[in-house]
Amino acid sequence: MEIQEIKQRLTMAELIKHYGLKADKQNRLKCPFHNDKTPSLQLYYKTQTAFCFSTNCTTHGKAIDVIDFILYYEKCTKHEAIKKAESIINPTTQAPPISKQTNETDKGGSLNTVENQNPVKQKVMFLERMFTYFKNAVHNSKPAREYIESRNLDYKQIEIGYNAGQFHHGARKDESLINDCLKYGILLDLGLKSRTGETAYKPFGKWCLCFALRNSNHEITGLYFRSTLSDKEQRHFYLRDRSGLYPNYPKAETQKLILTESIIDAASLLQQEEIKSKYEILSLYGTNGLTEEHQTAIQKLKHLTEIIFFLNGDEAGNKAVAKYAPMLKSEYPNLKVTSVAVPENEDVNSLLQGHSPEILTHLIETRKEVDFILSSDGEPPQADIFLSSENSIEKEKPEQPKAPVTGLDTTNPYNLKYKGNEASYQIKGFRTDQPDSLKITIQIIAEASGITLKLDLYEYKQVESSCKLIAGKLGLRKDAIEADLMQLTTLLEQYRDKQQFKANGRQESKIQVPAATATKCIEFLKAEKLIPRINELIGKAGITGEETNRILLFVIASSYKMNDTLHALIQGSSGSGKTRLLKIISHLMPDEDVKRYTRVTDNSFYNQDEYFFVNKLICFEDLDGLKEDAQLAVRELQSNDILRTSTSIKDASGKISGGERTVRGPIASLACTTRGEIYEDNISRSFLIAVDESKEQTLKIIRYQNEVSAGMIDPQEQKKTSQFIQNCIRLLKPYEVINPYANKITLPESAHKIRRLNELYQSFVKQITLLNQYQRKQDKQGRLITETEDLQTACEILFDSIVLKVDELDGSLRQFFERLKSHLKDKEQDFTQREIRQTMNISKAQCSRFFNHLQEMEYITAKYSGNQRKVCYKVDYWDNYAKVRAQIKDDLMNQIAGL
Prior knowledge:
Elements: H1 3-9, H2 12-18, E1 28-29, E2 41-44, E3 49-52, H3 66-74, H4 78-89, H5 119-140, H6 142-150, E4 161-163, H7 175-184, E5 187-193, E6 199-203, E7 208-214, E8 220-227, E9 236-238, E10 256-260, H8 263-270, H9 273-278, E11 280-283, H10 292-299, E12 306-310, H11 315-331, E13 336-339, H12 348-354, H13 358-365, E14 368-369, E15 371-373, E16 382-384, E17 408-409, E18 415-419, E19 424-428, E20 439-446, E21 449-456, H14 460-474, H15 478-504, H16 515-526, H17 530-540, H18 547-557, E22 567-571, H19 578-587, E23 594-597, E24 616-620, H20 628-640, E25 642-650, E26 656-664, E27 667-673, H21 680-685, E28 687-690, H22 695-709, H23 715-730, E29 737-738, H24 754-771, E30 784-785, H25 788-806, H26 811-823, H27 833-840, H28 844-856, E31 860-865, E32 870-875, H29 881-897
Parallel strand pairs: 10-11, 10-12, 12-13, 22-27, 22-28, 23-24, 24-27, 29-30
Antiparallel strand pairs: 1-2, 2-3, 4-7, 5-6, 7-8, 8-9, 13-14, 15-16, 17-18, 18-19, 19-20, 20-21, 25-26, 31-32
Helix pairs in contact: 3-4, 14-15, 16-23, 17-23, 18-19, 18-25, 24-25, 25-29, 27-28
């Protein structure tokens, strides 16, 4: 049986029961590994480990699992412990006899305690012991977990501890532990006495997250504490005689090293697998924290080629780069020194909180090399910090006047802060869905002490008794505390109402276009022949060829923020480039308004928040992967702009009752499929767009791919183009549009589902008008007026899609059939699938599928020859597709010309 399987099947609780041991209510027991008078072995059932806090224990400083427990309890080898564990799991398995091992304890000599080790080893063992305790404390502290989650950190993925300051109290109190804590600075003796007359110690780093600093041997030699109470002053605490680096010394084979300003920033990067796999990460200790130990660690990296500064986007961060970059460059002339352009007043962790993790990868990939001004008098080079801001995130920066004393700090919604006249208050995980109560978990802090309790601010007697308790514990005035809580009640009510209003109303985009950029965008939107100019920019953004399809998709995608939204179904064979077409078009829309899905579960759309999809562009890379329930939800949002579901709802008290869930639109959508012909309902709601699979388009794509590989295409220019188009879209407004020519244009009566097609056409004309809104006149009601130019543009772009609606063959099948007819020399010529596969260079499966569809539609027939094994085909129906196209186009253009 594998060790991992043993650990999964044998729990610590079962093992304790097997040996006849019994833990107390706090999951502690007298340690069986040494002479223990008071319970010092703590059991952690969540992690299936145990830890002894006594320095006299054989296991001192080590968290043990079930196998280790058997090893120490039986005083046996690890192999024998594994066999014993197997016999406990499966009683029918006979465990081999255990041979007792002779050790220092059996001889009656001194135990292997910290005192027997050298001073450095003593400190390492003590810190590893304490850090294990702090890591386990995270599992037992809800406020710690909430704070960690509010910083978008994962304590299950990276090592994080929490110091609640309780490790030396109650049953955990141990004189040897206290002496070690005093020795290494975990406890401070300030000469204070408790109410019982005993010495009262102040825990160092109380109510702080804890991170381990490690030496070159990966041993813990220092601890860093990050306050969970203050984000402005007294945030960072290092254990005295600081030693070690976070997360550890870089690996010897490191080639690219990222330096962050703080440990919490480094921890944020460590969670990103894509970053961690490409770069080594090392935290500085602030903007002045490139210590000798950091420099020593860097000197050992013989393969290092680049140092990347990922510091805060403020003046201090820029000064730190200007200070340290020349120093490193002079020390290592061949080293490349780069810096990440961080948005103003942001840092790594705040970016992780406000954006998707991909933003960190994006910023690192777009880093700029630091320019150095070489001195002619032998002085070290000076750094000229010039970082392009074109790829930086431009966010709305509302004015934030300094709040008065009575203000509520809502920067972190999981940890609201309020500074009253008598004390400071923090409200943990405040719920805004409690209209008839105001239940809170509140932490009251006065100077160096504090207290945490739960109360309902609407319960007068409870508040009064709590004020009395707080005043007694913290030595404050009861009436002043009551006044603070009264003011806090008012502020929390206002905050709750505001959040409820936001939850029930539409949210405006948080990204604003800078004034200089907006001016350029408006000039572009006012220029003549706007649609062809946009089409040209789409080509520069990365789509080669497909001129009609790409502008059609762009117009459809840009309708997401309007009242009449549009939808497109991109149909093509596998590998035809339909997904790339969708991705590039979707990236031309503002990222904050686009939802991209690879897979959608049956009920996920029904369970979203009510306004989650309002005026959003929804993209499906493969519509074939959506089950019918999910497709139904999409179709209803497309047609009716709303989903209503009767379901069971649990209220705040836990009571379950029948209720109604509502999810609102409108949405615009883009989707890809290889089987457009089977989506009857989807096709009727969407414009069907057939990917160009011609030989000419294939050559264009190959030429573009070769140019990319040869470095002839600048990806930065493509990104600039995409960002420019995004900003143009952000400046468009959802006007109402009137089309005075709406009843003067008629579509072909032979079109499939002509009613819905006409509705789609009129909406498309409106969207063309909206794109031209900076050039169109408005009536007295402020509505945009469509011009004949908009009608002509719409017909030119929509022509192929309208023809597809008339044609009974879907796009890919029509392209195949036209190529087949071109290949045949006369109408009576027979042909085989093999012949057509070789001529058109398509796969057997694809060719067979096309042949089957054409037979079902009675365009071709099969006949057998010879021994009945060889199948030949013949075209039965030679439709004149070109003539039909010409007639439809002439008819539409003649109608427009007549206007």
